[in-house]
Amino acid sequence: MELIGLLRRIVGHHHVLVAPEDVIVYEQDGSILQAIPEVVVLPGSVEEVGQVVRATRGAGVAIVPRGSGTGLAGGAVPAGGGVIVSLARLNHLLEVDLRGRTAIVEPGVINLEVTKGVAPHGYFYAPDPSSQAACSVGGNLANNSGGPHTLAYGVTTNHALGVEVVLHDGNPLWLGGRVPDTPGYDLCGVFVGSEGTLGVVVQGIVRLMRARESVRTLLAVFNRMDDATRVVVDVTGAGIVPAALEMMDQTTIEAVERGAPVGFPRDAEAVLLAEVEGVREYTERALREIEDICRRAGAREVRVAQSEQERAALWKGRKGAFGALGTLAPNYYVMDGVVPRSRLPETMRKVAEIGRAFGVRIANVFHAGDGNLHPNILFDMRTPGELDRVIEAGAAILKACVEAGGSLTGEHGIGLEKKAYMSWVFTEADLDAMARVRRAFDPTAGFNPGKVFPSPPACGEPRRVPAKIPAGLWV
Amino acid sequence: MRPSLLNRLREIVGAAYVLTAPEDTVVYEQDAFLVARAHPDAVVLPGSAEEVAAVARAAHEGGVPLIARGAGTGLNGGSIPVRGGLMVVLTRIDRILEIEARGRTATVEPGVINADLTAQAVQAALFYAPDPGSQGVSTIGGNVGNNAGGPHCLAYGVTGNHVLEMDVVLATGDTVTVGSRAPDPPGYDLCGLLVGSEGTLGIVTRLVVRLLRCSEAVRTMLAVFETIDDASAAVSEIIAAGIVPTAMEMMDGVVMRAVEAAIHAGYPADAGAVLLIEVETHADVLPRMMERIDAIARRHHPRQLRLAEGARERELLWKGRKEGAGALGRLAPSYYLHDGVVPRTRLPEVMRRVQEIARAHDLVIGNLFHAGDGNLHPTILFDPRVPGMLDRVVAAGEEILKTCIGAGGSITGEHGVGIEKREYMRWLFTETDLDAMRRVKRAFDPEGSLNPGKLLPDGSQPTSMMQVGARAWS
């Protein structure tokens, strides 16, 4: 393949992978979908990305950009064929401007490294997907990632001021900039969340925030899920915006207690973790109010962290929850639906009903404050026909979210996984408007083909495989 | 305009809502960009989203440009029909369709007056945050077109941060829905793209906006300084200390004298500059925040630091601020209100440079602006009857905007580009950057029929279309 020679000349022999044992590493992301790429390229600079794109697209070959491969919707799985362009080597924190509160980062920078780089000066980078120790800022930009603290601080797009992108012709282009609300069309906003379908992000200007004066955390245990979901509605209804408001259900509690026990009562139906950040006077009062709301709703136990150590202990169960699911079943399928908070109680009931109707076990660990559900359907891929039931149950859950006035994804994106469901939330005319924007940037739609939009992939369907229970799968 | 098209429009909206007589259409020749005008060929006032779609389809089939207009308070000439065509005025589509208190959203039509939404939402202890100075007159649809800001955007963000979902009529007359009530909707963020697109991509016919809860406590401080320099330095230091007031507005001596002559709001007319600092937060938090602001302001030689006593004094101070631009009509027959933005850390030096530019061109510049955002509004006073004066005004304005760019800023903070700054876009963007925007424009509007001659540079000089208007908007 002539293209491979060309790519080797651009990035160096070592950075073009074609051997089956090398490329197989790139067949999967955090979803249950797989497709083996033929070629993986790891450019080492913006210029190299430009040349790689020019050569590859010039040869009529598609490109699938990839960060750390922690995505949960199959966005980095090369189901439509093409060359994977991994941005992992572009991993420099290029510039930090504390006075202007911005940082310029390369796409391969690990999310947590941004905060680590500025934390000594009293700043942080707000978007905090649970994969933040492994996922890249570029991948976060592509998926418009959220995280537990999105409730107070917003998703990635609220923190991306500008991006430099390489377009289909290999030319770089800056969109947005350091100044908020740059004149003209908000094309930076269009790129954020476009899941690699418009171009390759090679640099980002992100907003830094000042660390809060005070952080307070509490954990409340409920006998009934309904009581816990009502607390979520009541807390936000009282005008309190916690920095995080996370929920775990009984199945998850069981997994946590089997895996890395933190002392949750196994007969409780739900555990709620609430965190407030801000000035001291506010956090003290907000914490007291949340505690009151929990007790009024019938919490059987409320633990308030009195030290950073105690705070870490409260978070431990939540952070280890996904890994712990492996103690219950060999495989699981993470869903990512979103509903208006006020519809949370009834939607959680509906999720439980769907579990019963399809005969699947569902563990819920999620961003309750955002109304962002993560039902995890537990299963065993070795049981014939089970995967199909799991997929059907997942579709039923998302349909229930849409019917409750919500949407298909809160933070994981559409990727391959949910593209067929896009017609549930968009009309043909809506999707056509998006398609026109895509063609405006990439006339032949050769970036990440077969993703996001409900069209058949170019080269056959990906194989669906179950998630292997991970040494850290993140949501 | 062809009679057949006019007849079709009359069938769609009713004969009373199609204006063609010069004495009727002349009203629509201008907006608040006081130095330019152009006459529409016809004006149509549809009464529903369906009528807007039908009007757009008729204009599309008739090959006529379509210019959307709200209340005409825009400051960049964005609603001036520089190439003629059909103006679609959305002020009849002005219902507040729903206020959903639990979900904190409102569904509104584009012609709803900004302040009317808050007036209604406040019954549920909610408010709509974007508060442009024109909020008593301007429409939410127009605010969306320009991604309008306002004094309280320092804490709450501009219009784009508050629009969740919109129905948009495209150039063909087709309607699409962009965005969603649910957070982070899938697919491309077309809602964000449409906000601030100045009527060049589509016409908004219905929108869902976010409402915020009214704050528990509010305190307003008036900080009086002898010089703009001291006031600017105080702004920089407050922000650097990590304090985000809800609003931090600056008004210089020129503007204060006009305001006091007009409405007696209680501003010290002989001071160099004042800061109007407002903090909205929890009652427990307020005292310490005010103390910290007070301590910082004290380091910059204030003449006086005064807390507004009660709602009446606060309202009066804000009335002075909001009507400040209008009050400038007392000082000169016309003015040119600019809108630049700079990093807050550069505010003191940029403000000094603005004063130098005023002196160099022998002009009076009043400053009334969102200091906390680094969003300047140097307002150049002039008399259109003085030969050559407008040229000096334009030259001074260009120097100010170039100074903003040189300081790492940009040519508009909240007023948009319109015709005014179309050519200035080249100062900020390369041809490659602009081509990307042009491609998006063509994706939505291949024939270029929506609000032609706006936003993107096309080579013609904006000054060439400036006709001197003798009337000030106030």
Summarize the structure.
The complex is a heterodimer of chains A (475) and B (474). Chain A has helices spanning 2-11, 20-23, 46-58, 111-118, 137-143, 150-153, 187-191, 225-237, 250-259, 280-296, 308-319, 321-324, 344-358, 386-403, 422-425, 428-441; strands at residues 16-17, 33-34, 39-41, 63-66, 83-86, 93-97, 102-105, 123-124, 160-166, 172-176, 200-207, 209-210, 214-222, 244-249, 270-278, 301-304, 331-334, 337-338, 361-367, 372-373, 375-379, 463-464.
Please tag this protein with its features.
heterodimer, A: about 475 residues, alpha+beta, Alpha-Beta Plaits, seven-stranded antiparallel beta sheet, about 35% helix, globular, B: about 475 residues, Uridine Diphospho-n-acetylenolpyruvylglucosamine Reductase, domain 2, Uridine Diphospho-n-acetylenolpyruvylglucosamine Reductase, domain 3, disordered C terminus
Structural class of chain B: alpha+beta
Shape category of chain A? globular
What CATH first level of the domain at 93-210 in chain A would be assigned? Alpha Beta
Rg of chain B (CA only): 22 Å
CATH fold descriptor of the largest domain in chain B: Uridine Diphospho-n-acetylenolpyruvylglucosamine Reductase, domain 3
Give the low-confidence spans of chain B: 467-474
Strand content of chain A: 15-25%
Tally of DSSP helical segments of chain B: 16
Strand order of the largest sheet of chain A: 16-13-15-14-19-21-17
**How much strand of chain B?**
15-25%
Compute the number of structural domains of chain B.
4
SS-derived structural category of chain A: alpha+beta
User: How many strands of chain B?
Assistant: 20
Shape of chain B: globular
> What would you call the quaternary organization?
heterodimer
Instruction: Characterize the main sheet of chain B.
Output: 7 strands, antiparallel
CATH topology of the domain at 93-210 in chain A: Uridine Diphospho-n-acetylenolpyruvylglucosamine Reductase, domain 3
Largest interface by residue count? A-B, 73 and 69 residues
As a whole number of angstroms, the C-alpha radius of gyration of chain A is 22 Å
